[in-house]
Design brief:
The complex is a heterodimer. Chain A is of the alpha/beta class. Chain A contains 8 helices and 6 strands. Chain B has an 8-stranded mixed sheet with strand order 3-2-1-4-5-6-7-8, sandwiched between helices. Classes of the chains: A alpha/beta, B alpha/beta. At the A-B interface, strand 5, helix 4 and helix 5 of A face strand 8, helix 8, helix 9 and helix 10 of B.
């Protein structure tokens, strides 16, 4: 995880464990914290830490650096800083575990892994099918490459929050 | 593999698009339907599409004439029995399809490849309607609408389909600048299975029939996710009834696996006849 600090604001980037994220908040009670919570439920963190003033999701961020941002309180200084760091923030009002884009995409990635696990098609053909059959900007495996650990973290978090078996991960994500 | 003589059965949107695409690859195509009126309409629409390409100088007069010469519309009993490939694109009704395949098996040369463009039925189940010998040359070829533009063709291997035939078809489509994907004969094949949660998860994020939330989700998946359309606007375009029916069909095929479960809101919308753009009311309202 990386921290960027200025004035009384701390921006926490990266996809650490829930305990690591909470530790950052405990250590910085005197600051207004904005934190990447791509893999978690921001509501849980807001309820526990009054110093958490906003959250964002950069898990599937590519070279365009577009991110979802939720602010408990409007904070222009944070928005200016995040733009200065090259990000394009898109403000959201919906509070959801895994935000909007990561939550949707991990479910597509999970299904692609189930299909691979069942030998329905190769990785290459699954990616190709989604890009050229329904115009996805990337194939599910292109999205998940190098991020499997975080995809699994978010699926586990969604399962813990909902106890809905739809979030149980493919064996290929666990191994 | 050299596919020259193609027969497309069913002159609806998919069948017409498939026939048009094959003709554009310089194949000789016979488009078949049991309605003369439908055939006339399909031919006029394909010709009109080519004439627009000619007006935009995308094709020459010579190419236009050649394509018109390569495409004909016929009744089934008038087509050549030595076709290289037959593609069925009729109504999604298993009994009607199986009965057609039994006739096709008897009608066409033993070497003819018989295929289905179904998105709903297992290819292996449909192949029960043909002889054991034909089963080796019976395959799923799932095109995407509009077939002349969308590059994907799912090549679906049924239990008894010759693996070499699937590979040859894959290579042939690739040589024609399609993007084939080889799939096992499992429910939804690749796309209709993997894409289910592009709808299912946003429905759960929104939770209720709240247009403001749906707009926000659509906007984020377009702007941040890079999708051409958001899930709610896309469901409205496809038809909420159609999307719900595909969801239920995949869910049932996977023994009601929770990952594919429809959302209560989908059923509610269908019950309220809010089908999307076609009924002027869906997740959004249209004037």
């Amino acid at each position: 995880m990386t921290n960027v600090e200025f004035d009384n604001i701390l921006i926490n980037f990266g996809f650490g464990s829930k305990d690591e994220k909470k530790h950052v908040l405990i250590q910085n009670t005197d600051k207004h914290v904005f934190m990447d919570l791509s893999c978690y439920d921001p509501s849980e963190f807001y309820a526990e830490f009054p110093n958490l003033k906003g959250s964002f999701a950069a898990l599937f961020c590519d070279s365009e650096k577009k991110i979802e941002v939720h602010m408990k309180e409007k904070n222009e200084a944070f928005i200016s800083k995040i733009k200065e760091l090259g990000f394009k923030p898109f403000e959201i009002s919906i509070l959801s575990c895994g935000f909007i884009f990561p939550r949707t995409i991990v479910q597509i990635i999970n299904e692609a892994h189930f299909a691979l696990e069942e030998n329905v098609a190769s990785k290459k053909d699954i990616d190709r099918a989604m890009k050229f059959g329904v115009n996805y900007p990337k194939g599910p495996f292109e999205w998940s490459e190098g991020r499997e650990k975080f995809v699994l973290t978010l699926l586990n978090e969604l399962f813990e929050k909902t106890l809905n078996k739809r979030y149980l991960p493919s064996k290929l994500l666990i191994s | 593999m050299n596919l020259q003589k193609i027969v497309v059965i069913g002159a609806g949107t998919m069948g017409s698009g498939i026939a048009q695409w094959f003709t554009q690859q310089s194949c000789s195509v016979e488009l078949v339907d049991n309605s003369g009126e439908q055939l006339k309409k399909a031919l006029a629409s394909i010709h009109s599409s080519w004439e627009k390409l000619f007006e935009k100088k995308k094709i020459t007069q010579e190419e236009l004439s050649k394509m018109k010469g390569l495409l004909s519309v016929k009744m089934l009993d008038q087509v050549a029995r030595d076709a290289d490939l037959v593609i069925e694109a009729i109504i999604e009704n298993l009994e009607i399809k199986k009965s057609l395949f039994t006739n096709l098996d008897q009608f066409f040369n033993p070497k003819t490849i018989i295929s289905s463009n179904t998105s709903s039925f297992p290819i292996t189940l449909m192949s029960e309607a043909v002889s054991d010998e034909r089963k080796k040359r019976f395959v799923g070829l799932h095109f995407f609408n509009p077939a002349t533009i969308m590059k994907l063709v799912e090549v679906i291997k049924a239990e008894q389909t010759d693996a070499g035939l699937c590979k040859d078809l894959y290579n042939w489509f690739e040589s024609k600048e399609k993007k084939p994907a080889l799939s096992k004969d499992s429910p939804g094949f690749i796309v209709n299975r993997v894409a289910r949660n592009f709808y299912g998860e946003p429905l759960r994020i929104a939770g209720t029939d709240d247009e403001k939330k749906m707009k926000e989700i659509d906007s984020i998946l377009r702007e941040v996710g890079g999708f051409k359309m958001g899930p709610f606007e896309l469901m409205d375009l496809i038809g909420i009834d159609i999307n719900y029916s595909v969801t239920c069909s995949v869910w049932d095929a996977y023994n009601q696996e929770p990952r594919f479960a429809p959302h209560a809101l989908q059923k509610q919308m269908v019950d309220e006849k809010r089908f999307g753009r076609k009924s002027k009311r869906g997740f959004y309202t249209y004037d």
